[in-house]
Amino acid sequence: MDNFHQLLQGFHNFKQKYFLKEREYFESLEKSQNPKTLVVACCDSRVDPAILLHCKPGELFVIRNVAALIPSSDQADSPSAVMAAIEYGVKHLSVEHIVVLGHSRCGGIHGLMHPETICNEKYIWQWVSIAAPALDRLDDLTDDEPPEVRARHCEEGAVLLSLDNLLSYPWISSKVEEGSLKLHALYYDLGEGELYRFSPEKEDFLPLALKTPKKSTK
Ligand SMILES: [Zn+2]
């Protein structure tokens, strides 16, 4: 079976295991959606927010793009697919949380850090250039830091930049100020299988304190 036919089989499995077993839930979704959280994630096939955050259809309003970037109000072109989706999530669905989910080994951020690898790819280059200010964060590091540390610093910086860019839209910043909308920065480490959350107090991404309960040895 080739990959595409595997996908069709996958839908069959979804229908048997979820749709037909939870008819009431899916019938409610037919009438409306009421997600509380909007997630901006990377297109990367390894970083599916619904799987990583263990969510069902209807629970997350998801926007995916190269490197999980959000343009500032000065940068957003018209039409902007990203901003149209965020506007819909904020104004029509009244989401209570916006999460920007970055990740390790991000090809988009790698391109930003190594322009020679994408300089002939107009659309990728234009897009990842949104995150150019995140490169300034590399000034915090010494030149002898290994490439993966430098990449992580830049990947995390791009997530924080996107959160800042969100605040450049008055219809977002006003909701954040009144407390009806909360912004969150998450970072997923592919190798560790660990999720990090930005702490404004510590000014750093910290691993989630949630741990799998250890099995009793008794
Ligand atoms: Zn990525």
Automatic annotation (TrEMBL):
Record's keyword annotation contains Hydrolase: no
Catalytic activity entry: hydrogencarbonate + H(+) = CO2 + H2O
Signal peptide bounds: none
Cofactors named for this entry: Zn(2+)
Pfam families cross-referenced by the UniProt entry: Pro_CA
Binding residues annotated for Zn(2+), in chain numbering: 42, 44, 103, 106
Gene Ontology terms for molecular function: carbonate dehydratase activity; zinc ion binding
Keyword line: Lyase, Metal-binding, Zinc
The record's free-text note on cofactor binding: Binds 1 zinc ion per subunit.
E.C. number(s) listed in UniProt: 4.2.1.1
Similarity field: Belongs to the beta-class carbonic anhydrase family.
Protein name, per record: Carbonic anhydrase
Species: Parasutterella muris
